[in-house]
Amino acid sequence: MKLDVNVLRYLSKEDFRVLTAVEMGQKNHEIVPMPLIDSISGLKHGGAFRCLKTLLQHKLVHHEGQKYDGYRLTYMGYDFLAIKALVARGHIAGVGRQIGVGKESDIFEVTNDEGEVFALKLHRLGRTSFRDVKSKRDYLGTRSNYSWLYLSRLAALKEFAFMKALGDHGFPVPVAIDNNRHAVLMELVDGQPLVQVRELAHPAAVYSAAMDLIARLAARGLIHCDFNEFNLLIDEEETLTLIDFPQMVSVSHPNAEELFDRDVECIIRFFNKKIGYMPQLDESLPSIRPSFQAAVAEAAAAGASGLDVELAASGFNKNHAKDLQAFLDGSEVQDDADDQAGSDSEEGCEDEDEDDSEPSSSDADAASDSGSEQLLDEAGDLPDAQAAA
Ligand code: ADP
Ligand code: MG
């Protein structure tokens, strides 16, 4: 999806007020009826209607005219609200080129007033394909009121909390700067995804660094669960930076050991197949693969409370974790069914090949946030709106 931030400049204060009103209305309505938007925005003389026309023109809201008459945010509308908030906080001044398209995110280069460049990740859970969305909706069953905007916001909240905690504990991850709605603002890493590399000056050292990272994470109570060549960035000095955290789990997860081993196998397979380095045959390596049991035993011996425990008490709480996990588990079930394959570890990595291709965004606009509690902190300039809602 294109993010035309020029539009940002054409939008008036009133336009944003109405956009925020739609977001607030979606707290309780999948489709927000016009009278509610009118009352939340508090604009006089059909002001809200005029603004809605502008918002529609720029595809920031969608008009639903069939079953119910009303409006809902598009992903782009949600993007604009998040970006506006980050601009208001003085963290970004401009949005530049898109640097990454993940399965469930878009990543842009952004700048601040000093001209420093950062990475902005906008989460888009459930956009992969319409079929996928439907199956995930089915999977969530009675909880289908957890919309994709809500889940994207949870993914961002989790990613930010984990990135911050990992960075604070010395893990090589981008510096976490800010989070708003489904957006995570972070350091722009100077490096390329390992998947783009075919030759390494020091394959054994890079391999060991990756394995060490997996083991150290487990020793601090965490498993990445998507630890592969797509989520490791490598710089000129062949130093690794780990990214992409929404799917991380605690070592107390029932399948922890399996997930840990899957991460390890993904890296081994990449080095075997793409780099042509065989750790199995390298006698100079102190160990070929880390052991989950050893890492967990080390954590126990150190007696330190794990990051998993620390994070459970963060802004990303237990209920959030449950909601997000239900969705992620559902998508795994679906991925496996799609590929007619079981839980073969090969799966996890092969799936990732999709990461490079442009995902379909046909359903991106299908998102709404009914039944979810919204982050309303940015609606601060709407004091009367809160009361109206
Ligand atoms: P997804 O969850 O959609 O896979 P990722 O967080 O893995 O998203 O990011 C997708 C791509 O965007 C990465 O492979 C990388 O190329 C780029 N990218 C993400 N974060 C950064 C960053 N902080 N610095 C530089 N590039 C990044
Ligand atoms: Mg990724």
What does this protein look like?
The structure is a single chain. This protein is of the alpha+beta class and 389 residues long. The chain is 44% helix and 14% strand. It is built from 14 helices and twelve strands. The protein has helices at residues 6-10, 13-25, 34-41, 47-57, 75-88, 130-140, 148-168, 203-219, 256-275, 292-302, 307-312, 318-338, 346-351, 383-388, and strands at residues 61-64, 70-73, 94-102, 105-111, 117-123, 176-180, 183-187, 192-193, 222-223, 232-234, 240-242, 249-250. The strands form four sheets. It has a five-stranded antiparallel sheet, with helices on both faces. It has a three-stranded antiparallel sheet with strand order 8-10-11, covered by helices on one side. Strands 1-2 form a two-stranded antiparallel ribbon. Helix 8 (203-219) crosses helix 10 (292-302). The radius of gyration is 22 Å and the shape is elongated. The structure holds adenosine-5'-diphosphate and magnesium ion (MG). Magnesium ion is lined by residues 102, 230-231, 244, 355.
Distance between the termini: 31 Å
Regions with pLDDT < 50 over 5+ consecutive residues?
A: 129-134, 136-145, 333-348, 351-389
**What is the CA-atom radius of gyration, in angstroms?**
22 Å
Overall geometric form: elongated
Lateral strand order in the biggest sheet: 3-4-5-7-6
What is the tally of beta strands?
12
What bound compounds does this protein have?
adenosine-5'-diphosphate, magnesium ion
Structural class label: alpha+beta
Quaternary state of the chains: single chain
On the 0-100 scale, what is the average pLDDT? 81
